[in-house]
Design brief:
- The structure is a single chain.
- With 386 residues, this protein is mostly beta strands.
- The protein is 7% helix and 36% strand.
- Strand 19 and strand 20 form a beta hairpin.
- It is globular, with a radius of gyration of 20 Å.
Length: 386
């Protein structure tokens, strides 16, 4: 494992992950059937079999159009020809699984990677996929995403967040209850969660839950014959299936105008699609600068503790410190994006608990004031966990 000079402690990470065991079944989910979500597709590296290189999910909204998550891309330089879309079978090893190359990528103009906001991507394919398409949720479907409703998630993601070998062969499905926005705002912080463009999902016991590799996959609502694409799997906390956790999904209805316009599809509700509003300007820098740096990392069998140190004249203005762990798709590993809200342990010192998965990881810590404005620049480190 190649690590920064400050951390022999990270060596414990590899041990904690290799000792993990595979769960039996999305986390806590069940095997999907052919009628659950026939528009479900997967993303794979071009020319590679889905059994080896499936890294994200998606939903077919027209024979040549797929909706997935922005964060599934390997950076802004990702080219459409490097991705294939597969679908038409429940098993990743089924010889009947159909594959079509991506012809064009429509990136959301307001994508905010630091907050995983506007986490919606439209793909156009070089040829039609012979699968049913799912309708995009609109203004008449508000009840489907209201707190108390239950949406269906499907994916080939990990069934055990501690085991990178737990990606199932068979497509899994899970019923995800929608909860009030205050749950995710309280869990991730109001500086991260956006109630306008995101949905909050949380099972009472923590399971079922979506996990790494389910990213970009659909949340489906509505009865038989009236299914709607309501959400897109976006990000979650430091672990999947935790009892006190929550997960965030892109709200498709709030992005409907941009999705249909980018896909070249008509809006059957009769509403006039409006272009996405320009991104708001960044808040002015605080007069008193805050400087963050990442300190030592120590790990148990389940989680790692990351120490974050704050200095500078504006240190007293800090209301929240958020640690973000980001892994782009690499070497057969699906993308992973996790947030941890740090706790203040003493003046100028914060502690965040998270799991650090395998691969090249980008760690960043950001401080916010009471209004949600960023204080100073993020502290960043890149580590490799093997």
């Amino acid at each position: 494992m190649r690590i920064p000079s400050w951390n022999a402690a990270i060596a414990a990470i590899a041990l904690s992950l290799t000792c993990a065991t595979q769960a039996q079944a999305v986390v806590g989910g069940r095997d999907a059937t052919v009628v659950d979500n026939p528009s479900m597709v997967g993303l794979v590296e071009h020319g590679q079999p889905a059994s080896d290189a499936l890294f994200c999910g998606g939903a077919l909204i027209a024979p040549t159009v797929v909706v997935t998550a922005m964060h599934c891309l390997d950076g802004a330089s990702q080219q459409p020809g490097t991705i294939d879309v597969v679908g038409g079978a429940l098993s990743r090893t089924d010889p009947n699984l159909k594959s079509v190359q991506v012809a064009e990528l429509m990136r959301h103009p307001n994508w905010d990677e630091s907050r995983t906001l506007h986490d919606v991507l439209v793909m156009r394919l070089t040829a039609p996929l012979p699968l049913p398409s799912v309708a995009v949720a609109g203004p008449d479907d508000a009840a489907l995403s209201a707190p108390g409703s239950v949406l269906r998630a499907t994916g080939w993601g990990l069934t055990n967040f501690k085991d990178n070998d737990s990606q199932p062969d068979q497509l899994k499905e899970a019923d995800i209850p929608v909860v009030d926005d205050s749950v995710c705002a309280g869990f991730f912080g109001e500086a991260i969660y956006d109630a306008t463009f995101q949905l909050c999902g949380r099972s009472p016991s923590g399971k079922p839950d979506t996990c790494q590799g389910d990213s970009g996959g659909p949340l489906i609502g509505g009865g038989a014959g009236a299914e709607r694409l309501v959400g897109v799997v976006s990000y979650g906390p430091t672990s999947c299936g935790a009892k006190d956790g929550a997960a965030v999904y892109a709200d498709v209805a709030s992005e409907r105008g941009w999705i249909l316009s980018s896909a070249g599809l008509p809006d059957t509700t009769g509403a006039t699609p409006t272009p996405a509003a320009p991104a708001p300007p960044a808040p002015p820098a605080a007069k008193n600068t805050v400087k963050l740096r990442l300190g030592e990392i120590s790990c148990s069998d389940v989680t790692c503790r990351v120490i974050i140190k704050a200095s500078g004249k504006g240190r007293a203005d800090i209301a929240d410190v958020i640690l973000r762990v980001n892994r782009r798709s690499q070497d057969g590993l699906p993308p992973a994006k996790r947030f941890a809200r740090a706790k203040k342990v003493r003046p100028g010192r914060y502690s965040a608990k998270t799991l650090l998965p395998y691969g090249v990881l980008s760690l960043s810590a950001v401080a916010y004031d009471q209004s949600g404005a960023q204080l100073g620049k993020p502290a960043k480190e890149t580590i490799v966990v093997e």
